[in-house]
Amino acid sequence: MAPDERRGTFAAFGAFLFWGAMPLYFWAFPATVGAFEITLHRIFWTFVLLLIVLAFDGSLTKSLSLFRQPKVIGMLVASTALISINWLVYAWAAMNGHLAEASLGYFINPLINVAFGVVLLRERLNMWRWLAVGLAALGVLNQIIVVGKPPWIALTLAFSFGGYGLLRKMVAAEAKEGLFVETLIVAPLMLGAIVWLEMQGNGHLFSGTPLTIFLLLAAGLTITIPLTMFNFAARRIPLSTLGLIQYIAPTSTFTMAIVVGEKLTFGGLMTFVLIWMGLALYSFDLWRKRGVSP
User: Fold this and answer.
1) Confidence class for position 240, pLDDT limits 50, 70, 90
2) Which of 197, 201, 247, 286 has the least CB density, counted as fewest CB within 10 Å?
3) Are 11 and 242 in contact (CB under 8 A)?
4) In Å, what is the CA distance from 104 to each residue of 112, 126, 148, 252?
5) CA-based torsion, 144, 147, 150, 154: positive or negative
6) Nearest CA to 253 among 112, 140, 104?
7) pLDDT tens digits, 9-26
8) pTM score > 0.90 for this model?
9) What is the percent of the chain where pLDDT is above 70?
10) Spatial distance between the Cα atoms of 71 and 37, rounded to a whole number of angstroms
11) Cβ within 8 Å of residue 250, ≥6 positions away
12) What distance in Å separates the CA atoms of residue 271 and residue 138, rounded to the nearest whole number?
C-alpha cells in the first residue's frame, strides 16, 4: 500500500469511528438539553469554524463566489435542508432510545444510493446489486408487516443522507467550500433560534453547567473533524474501500444500542439480518469489480 493510500485509510477509519461514537457526545448533555438546541449549535458553530479556517487559508473569496452561480446555490439550499434534517433526526434518535434504528438507517444508506442511481441517474444494475436492493426492501417490509411499524427514523436518515450525497455529487463545489456555503445559508436562522431560546429561558449557552456550555461551543468540531478526515480519505483511497470502511459507524452505534439496553425483538433482528445480507452482496460486488477475492 502506497504511503498516501495508507494515510487515506487511517483517515477513513478515523472519520467513521468518530461518527460511530457520536452518541457519546449527545449523551454527555443533561436531559434538559434537547436535540433541537444541540443541532442549532452544531450547524452555527460549524459555520463560525469554517469561516475562520477559510479566511486563514485564503479560500473565503472562492467560497463566496459560489453565490454568483444560482444553480449551484439552489442545489446547496436543497442539500442544506436534507443534511439539517439528517443531523436533527439522528440527534433525537440517539437521545431518545432509538439508536438501533438510527444505525439501521446508515446500514440501508449504501443501498439507497444504489436505488437512487437506478431511478434518478438511470444506472444499470448487475444481478448482485439487484439482489442487494431486493433484500433491503424485504428488510423494510419485514419491519412494517412483522414488527408492525415503519422504520421512519431509519428511512429518514437513509433518504436524507442519500439525497444529500447525490446533490453534493452533482453540484460544482468543493467539499469544504460547499459545506461553508450550506452553513452560511442557514446561519442567520440558527443564530436567531439560539437567541430566541436564550430569551425564552430555554437555552443553555449562558445558563448551563460549564460542561454543557463547553459542549455547545465545541459543537462545530463534531461536524468539521470527521468530515475533514472523510474528504482527505476520499481523495486517496478507492471508493470500494471507503464503502466498506463506512460500515464501522453504524456497527459501532448498533453495538452501543445493545450495550445500553435497547430492546430488539426477533422481528426487528430479522430486519437487520436482511439488510446485512444485502450489504454482504453489495460488498462482494464492490470487491469483485476490483478483482479481489472478498
Assistant:
1) low
2) 201
3) no
4) 12, 24, 16, 11
5) negative
6) 104
7) 898 899 999 999 999 999
8) no
9) 96
10) 31
11) 20, 103, 104, 105, 106, 107
12) 8
Tens of pLDDT, residue by residue over 246-255, are 888 999 999 9
Contact residues for 179 (Cβ-Cβ < 8 A; gap 6+): 46, 50, 223, 224, 227
Distance CA 107, CA 294 (A): 19
Name the phi and psi angles at 218, rounded to 5: -90, 5
Name the one residue in this structure whose C-alpha cell is 433491503: 136
Work out the percent of the chain whose per-residue pLDDT is above 90.
49
Cell of 53: 479556517
Tell me which long-range contacts 17-21 makes (C-beta under 8 A, separation of at least 24): 17/248, 17/249, 17/252, 18/225, 18/226, 18/229, 19/226, 19/249, 20/248, 20/249, 20/250, 20/251, 20/252, 20/253, 20/256, 21/252
Q: Which residues contact 168 (CB under 8 A, 6 or more apart)?
A: 79, 175, 178
pLDDT tens by residue, 82-114: 999 999 999 999 999 999 999 998 888 888 877
CA atoms within 13 A on the CB side of 198: 14
Place of cell 419485514: 142
Query: In the structure grid, which three cell numbers stand for residue 161, read together?
Result: 443522507
DSSP string, 57-69: HT-HHHHHGGGG-
